[in-house]
Amino acid sequence: MEPLSQLAPAKVNLALHVTRRREDGYHDLESLVVFAGLADELDARPAEADTLTISGPFATALGNGQSNLVTRAVAAFRARWPGAVETGLAMHLTKNLPVAAGIGGGSADAAAALRLMAAMSNQPIAVAELADMAAGLGADVPACLVSRPLVARGVGEVLSPLPDFPAGHLVLVNPMVPLATADVFRRLKAHDNYPLPELPVPLTRPAQLGIWLAETRNDLQPPAIKLVPVIGEIIERLAGTQGCILARMSGSGATVFGLFGSSGQAHQAAQVMRAAHPDHWVAAAPLILP
Asked: How far apart are CA 257 and CA 63, in angstroms?
């Protein structure tokens, strides 16, 4: 049997507002989330037992044991739907995205594993049940199951997919400094910021998106810059490239994105950033549209 494959696209928070600190210690968020045409790749074929091998540019940053989110996702699926996938799975993850980078790499990998398991299942798997289980694996996993433009609320589990979204291109720059989400939240000063403004309907033009984004922010960006000051330098340099609509940190960092209206502008900006920061990870890709 030919292996089944799933892409695990990079998740980018174009805006992220922290609106409340909950009694359980977590935070309620509101975020406009998009996905880029840059992805890890997960392949699976039937085998006697579940195994995971990893290759790719960032393979050495990951273990393939029980702590790996792909392994955890497969185990959670089997516990929820025993016998639905009748064989073991030999899985191979090509790790193209940096780890602990604020672009949902591990969560996207887990979501890809869940989609693979559902595709190989001998019984129908309700999307709502799969999303509910995904939330138990991590706050970003439900959004990564969708991998299309959406607004995420709660801790990330309340999703509103967007039926329309303007075409655009992203440049992603990571300084190769891992940044733990918990460390960033620990340094967050205000925990009750105002929510996202209302999105235009329909949202179809880049100019609409740019105007809306100008009224938003990433509340995690200031504490992240204090921990990793080069994030601020990357934002400033990327914002100065030709055609950049917005430069901002994604998620809890340390990846910075630049939003562009055309592929040519994005690739030119990526060249500028590679020349200025040859030791950083730099990539350009289109947005994945609804």
From this structure: 27
